[in-house]
Design brief:
Helices cover 71% and strands 5% of the residues. It has helices at 17-28, 31-43, 47-75, 79-86, 91-123, 132-141, 145-162, 165-192, 197-205, 214-227, 234-239, 248-276, 286-298, 302-335, 340-360, 376-403, 433-438, 449-471, and strands at 369-371, 374-375, 410-416, 422-431. The chain has a two-stranded antiparallel sheet. A two-stranded antiparallel sheet has the order 3-4. β1 (369-371) and β2 form a beta hairpin. It starts with 16 loop residues before the first helix and ends with a helix. The protein binds 4-fluoro-L-phenylalanine (PFF).
Length: 472
């Protein structure tokens, strides 16, 4: 038996398809949707960016999500083990995903910690006439407080994953994700009812193509990968807990749909409020932590909206970071060296330690640049989101499209009738292993199959490669 799959027989499974969808959509919906997407729309020409993002999402993101989940469900193992079952030579692709997981977990929980600080200050005022930019700079550059909130966030992350797939990840995703959607709707209704909010809606939906250039497309691709948690094995690991009876296509397709709806809704919840109070929509990363607290302070009922908004952010960040952690934990438990509790403890300690320099890179270590002009935090984000995840995506497409079982293909079965003339059985296909996995051995329908095959073999690897090379 393979070294990476010694425990596969007693592997956990989701208790329901709904549980899987909530967990996987929880992984996808995160800071990427609530924080990055709205400010990217603000900076990159409103709906011009949305259109580019949507095209990349439909033609690259969605097909790759299906491919990644398929590998996991096929292997019923962690990323290294599942890729290894396709070909032992491919284990490194899974291993690269684990490395990406460590890198993501070094900076993502730092922001999770900031959210805890802002949630706390939704209850406890910042004082009279606060300078929000200064508050943010003071907090993030402080050598101890952000590390304490990082620790609190890491403990929450740890506890959910330590409780296991069904009793931890699935149970809490089933609570947090619906709560998140309800809160987001409340915030959206509140902002849309503000005087002057319509300007913000117009800003979002007015396409300003003058802001679009090569870099915009690059940013959009990075955002598709980051937002869908693609190319590093998180979706693969969640797919590995799907049962062989589930309808893989139907379950997978809901993930990008929920993810995109939340990103759009978050933009509609945030931008109009920014406009209503005459703040800058192009504020960038500062939008959530500097502009929004100022907006909430001016808004009637802002105190309440601030509490629920930062609760929403916290839930979104948690359901994403648990999926990053689960990939690493599943690798150790599948190997059989440690039980879940020990594995989660070990990995959580390591990532907490990795988080400390990332947190300090806003203060004490701000002079250290790993890439020119990029602090430790920014460099980690850059390596994971702009290099490793897209590269993982290219490898994912190549593995599924070209390597697994000789590559994606399906052939129509030709059956001869009694006279010996060929009768084409239109719905009878000879599937390769990957297609068999998606269609439950040919028993389920797989809509858009031919288009999917074409995209996985050609479009996804070539487009991402082109953008990737351009980027480097
Ligand atoms: N999709 C998450 C977000 O949009 O915030 C980020 C993420 C989660 C990336 C899980 C990778 C991952 F494995």
């Amino acid at each position: 038996m393979d070294n990476d799959n010694s425990q596969s027989s007693n592997r956990a499974h989701w208790s329901s398809t709904f549980g899987f969808i909530m967990a996987a959509a929880g992984s996808a919906v995160g800071l990427g949707n609530l924080w990055k997407f709205p400010y990217l729309v603000g900076q990159n020409g409103g709906s011009a960016f949305i259109v580019i993002y949507a095209l990349l999402l439909v033609f690259i993101g969605v097909p790759l999500v299906i491919a990644e989940i398929t590998i996991g469900r096929f292997g019923q193992l962690n990323p290294v083990g599942s890729y290894g079952l396709i070909s032992p030579k491919l284990k490194w692709v899974g291993a690269m995903g684990l490395v990406t997981g460590f890198i993501l977990l070094s900076f993502y929980p730092v922001v999770g910690g900031w959210i805890i600080y802002y949630l706390y200050h939704s209850f406890v005022s910042f004082g009279e006439n606060p300078d929000y930019a200064q508050i943010f700079a003071n907090y993030t550059s402080n050598p101890t407080y952000p590390i304490i909130t990082l620790f609190i966030f890491s403990v929450m992350n740890y506890l959910i994953v330590a409780l296991g797939v069904e009793k931890g990840i699935e149970k809490y995703s089933k609570i947090m994700m619906p709560a998140l959607l309800i809160i987001l709707l409340i915030v959206t209704f509140r902002t849309l009812s503000l005087d002057g909010s319509w300007e913000g809606v117009k800003f979002i939906f007015h396409p300003d193509f003058s802001k679009v250039n090569g870099k915009t497309i690059l940013v959009a691709v990075g955002q598709v990968f980051f937002s869908l948690s693609l190319g590093m094995g998180a979706m693969l690991t969640y797919g590995s807990y799907l049962s062989k009876k589930d309808n893989l296509f139907k379950s997978s397709i809901s993930i990008p749909i929920i993810d995109t709806l939340v990103a759009l809704l978050a933009t509609i919840a945030i931008m109009p409020a920014v406009f209503a109070f005459k703040f800058e929509p192009t504020a960038g990363p500062a939008l959530i932590f500097i502009t929004l607290p100022a907006v909430f302070a001016k808004m009637p009922m802002g105190f309440f909206i601030s509490i629920i908004f930062f609760t929403l952010m916290l839930f979104a960040a948690l359901t994403s970071s648990i999926s990053m952690l689960e990939g690493l934990v599943s690798y150790i438990t599948d190997k059989g060296h440690m039980k879940r509790f020990g594995a989660t403890t070990l990995v959580s300690i390591i990532i907490f330690l990795l988080g400390i320099p990332c947190s300090l890179s806003f203060g004490l270590l701000s002079h250290i640049n790993i890439f020119p002009g990029k602090s430790i935090f920014d460099s980690m984000d850059f390596i994971a989101s702009n290099i490793l995840m897209p590269f993982g995506g290219i490898m994912l497409a190549i593995c599924v499209g070209w390597i697994w079982d000789g590559g994606l293909r399906y052939e129509t079965i030709i059956v001869r009738n009694q006279k010996g003339n060929p009768d084409v059985v239109t719905n009878g296909y000879v599937f390769n292993s990957c297609l068999k996995e998606i269609t439950n051995q040919g028993t389920l329908n797989f809509p858009f199959m031919s288009a999917w095959i074409f995209i996985i073999k050609w479009v996804a690897p070539l487009v991402v490669l082109a953008i990737f090379i351009d980027n480097l």
